[in-house]
Amino acid sequence: MELLPAVPYESWSGTIPTLHRFAQVVGKVRLAASPLRNHWWNVPLHLTGRGTTTRPMGLDPTFSIDLDFLDHRLTVDALDGRRASFPLVGRSVADFHAGLVDALTAVGADGSVLDGARPFDLPDADRPFADDTEHATYDPAAVTRYWQVLSQVNLLLEEFAGAFTGKTSPVHHFWHTFDIALTRFSDTVVQHPPGTDRVTREAYSREVVSSGFWFGDPTFPEPAFYSYTAPEPAGLAEDPLPHGAGWVERGASHLAVLPYEVARAAPDRRVAVLEFYEAAYRAGATRAGWDVDALAHRPA
């Protein structure tokens, strides 16, 4: 299939909120059942050849949760061979929540970790998943396309990761924000102000330049590639970006944004995305005082 096929936000704007909440329900289990890694690297989901996975977690039992976006099923597999599965099509978030609780229980895992679980940073954050019958739209073709695009961007980010010799995160699919990202780190410790929450302190304990992609939401209704530097160095938004990309204000900071359709219109889509990531990274890292040349990987 073509690299970066069309995936306009409006074509599946009803499915995205449902799928996002499905991912958050699974993510809540991942958060509860996996040992803490630096920068919360234990929490996100990862890509498979058919969808996404939590990877193995838990000790008694050890199990994984996989979302298959070709057959459109959720499967829970335990280390001892026990398995439970159910279809995704035609389910509300409440149905999905109940199905996952039952599936966890069937393989001997603790389904109670989802008791009272609620969305994170979404408009209905006060409503338990178990009560959400509103979000029930699931277009299988759109979900398959989402996974295909996600898989292609995953590989572009993997390629981008290979050009850096410093500390780099895995490529993560973040269930809370429903994006995919790769983060480069410096060794500089960030001194957060008093009152900074625990999540932020751990995630941004070092200076970072993060590069990623998201599918859009009601506040930004189009898919786009992005990059940001945290903490943001002074003057970052003054630096040039490739044609069609720009700096977007995000509160007191800025996000480098390359609209998906601009990348699709480029003579070489892969090159356009990688050049955008590199330009945004160099802008942030240079202004933050990183030794950009020393950190560059140049294969022999």
From TrEMBL:
InterPro entries the UniProt entry points to: DUF5996
Domain of life: Bacteria
Short name of any one Pfam family annotated for the protein: DUF5996
This protein's name: Ava_C0101 and related proteins
